[in-house]
Amino acid sequence: MTSPIAHFNGELLPLDRIAVSPLDRGFIFGDGVYEVIPVYDGVMLRAREHFERLQRSMDEIRLVNPHTVDGWIRASEALLAHHPGNQSLYIQVTRGVPPKRDHVIPRDITPTVFMMVQPLASPSREAVENGVACITAEDFRWKKCHIKSTSLLGNVLARQLSADAGAAETILLRDGFLTEASASNVFVVKNGVVAASPCDNLILLGITYELLVRLAADGGVKLEIRPVAETELRAADEVWLSSSTKEVLAVTRLDGKPVGSGMPGPLFKRMHALYQEHKAALARSRVAA
Ligand SMILES: Cc1ncc(COP(=O)(O)O)c(C=O)c1O
């Protein structure tokens, strides 16, 4: 099988011809940031918002962005020209390759830019219709979760807990409050009102989270952004996950117990429909939205 085309430091190359120095700070320290953008039939969903978040992540780690948002969009489109259909575009920027290993941030090194494309694994019909099972765990990650950092060991270990339990995600709790899940944001619904955790340093501000907040406002769905207590999560009528690849997905079992009726609830169905309409409008316009 031929190796898929990827982007490495401005060049389009077969993935298996790309090699990274072991001194790259992404390899040695996890010193880098990334994005994942869903692509529907060649069109990126919310490309600008993803590249603006990449800029915020880079600002947080004091990394100079090698491209403007428009430059990133052009480079992405050049790569996507090799990958028609529904795809997941992965973008990673690390601090680059210094002459020696030293924690102190080196001056004047060139960031390493890597982009690859993988088939988009959208949620199965079964997952949309029946929801998924999740477990909870203590949020043992650091306090800079708003940075979309490639240092993902905390998220990896958190996700593995649910993988071991045969569940789809691990929902994280810090000091008695909901934060997010290992690779998704979390929404809870009680008595017809949706609640989502504030976008502070303890969660990643999901592009899908922002989109759902906007779609809820436009669609007349009541949504509050405020701290959500563990007790509210456990007593919720509905719980949802959101991410660029999961879209919006109902959680119907939490720690082995049914959530609400044990089936995706009415507000989930409404939000899911609004999200699908948004995607369909994107396909019709065939421009990055
Ligand atoms: C920790 C974490 N929170 C939230 C999200 C959701 O972000 P987005 O909607 O931008 O995909 C992700 C996505 O990977 C994530 O890793």
Describe, in plain words, how this protein is organized in 3D.
The chain is α+β, with helices and mostly antiparallel strands. Helices cover 30% and strands 28% of the residues. The strands form two sheets. Strands 7, 8, 9, 10, 11, 12, 13, 14 and 15 form a nine-stranded mixed sheet that branches. The protein is globular and about 55 Å long.
Strand element count:
15
Beta-strand portion reads 25-35%
Largest sheet: 9 strands, mixed
Task: Identify low-pLDDT runs.
Answer: none
What is the SS-derived class? Answer: alpha+beta
Bound molecules: pyridoxal-5'-phosphate
Short description:
By secondary structure, this protein is an alpha+beta fold.
List keywords for this structure.
289 residues; alpha+beta; nine-stranded mixed sheet; six-stranded antiparallel sheet; 8 helices; 28% strand; globular; binds pyridoxal-5'-phosphate
Write the layout of secondary structure elements.
Elements: E1 5-8, E2 11-14, H1 25-29, E3 32-40, E4 43-44, H2 47-60, H3 69-80, E5 87-94, E6 112-119, H4 125-130, E7 132-138, H5 153-164, E8 169-174, E9 177-181, E10 185-190, E11 193-196, H6 207-218, E12 223-225, H7 230-234, E13 238-243, E14 247-254, E15 257-258, H8 266-285
Parallel strand pairs: 7-8, 7-14, 11-12
Antiparallel strand pairs: 1-2, 1-6, 3-4, 3-5, 5-6, 8-9, 10-11, 10-13, 13-14, 14-15
The structure holds pyridoxal-5'-phosphate.
